[in-house]
Design a protein that fits this description.
By secondary structure, this protein is an alpha/beta fold. It has helices spanning 4-60, 94-111, 123-131, 149-164, 196-201, 225-300; strands at residues 78-84, 115-121, 136-140, 170-180, 183-192. A five-stranded mixed beta sheet has the order 3-2-1-4-5, sandwiched between helices.
Amino acid sequence: MASQRDVKNKIASVKNIQKITRAMEMVAAARLRRAEQRIAALRPYAEAIGRMTRQAAEAAGAETANVPLLRVHEPQENVGLLLVTGDRGLAGGFNSQVIRDGVRLAAEVAEEGLQSVWYATGRRGVSSLSFRGHELTGSYTGFADRPAYADARAIGGDLIGAYVDGRLDRVEMVFNSYVSPLTQHVTRQTLLPLQSITVEQEDRPAGQGAQAPPERTPVDYEPDPEKILRRLLPDYVEISIYRALVESAAGFFGAQMTAMRSASENAGEIITEYTLQMNRARQAEITQEIMEVVAGAEGLS
């Protein structure tokens, strides 16, 4: 049985770890609230961009076939895979589940006879994919906790340029969509090509009880709808990436807060167990001392 001193040292070590995990939980909770506010502020803008893009696509009609970002490449050879992860760990399976789903998606792409071209945001995704032997065409780090629109614009510019130049024939994005601090869902989204059905269905209410959309006011486009659509589509791609980055940041803080809370609770259980072990060791030492005193008294008598 371990001595009291050994058990006391273990208790002190676990208590120090518990202080760290509690502090990290509180920091993650504060950052999560700010990330949720950013999601709430972003949502109306993203919906407006989607609505404007949808209306311009409907007005352009058959002319959408002339827009490069709406044109489907045939035949297809290279598929870009963009994985959105965090810069740090200690968040449970937050990063690993995105990487696993990305690897599964690459296997599905390989079954189609296509080549995967890897892109990743966040140090965890970049390091993990490099460790697995995948060559990264684009890596973006240092902003996972607080992404800016300029970060999404840089990523979107690389992907759009590769698609327009023919180096990519399709672009898929994998990220954690934020549901609640306890729940983050791995989501796949086709970024390019932007098919007309994707643009038309974006942000529309679903379900049998959904209300019919209000009657639209006729819009006169100047210049013509095709030129406006060419201008809006890059913004639509960028805002889709930015939304994924913001939701991933909120999901990371939620996952980290949950993981640190669980770690603090586990540390408390370990402290309780070690305290009982220390009490048993103290009782054993007291019992041993009593037996030695009794044996000495008997020896004197």
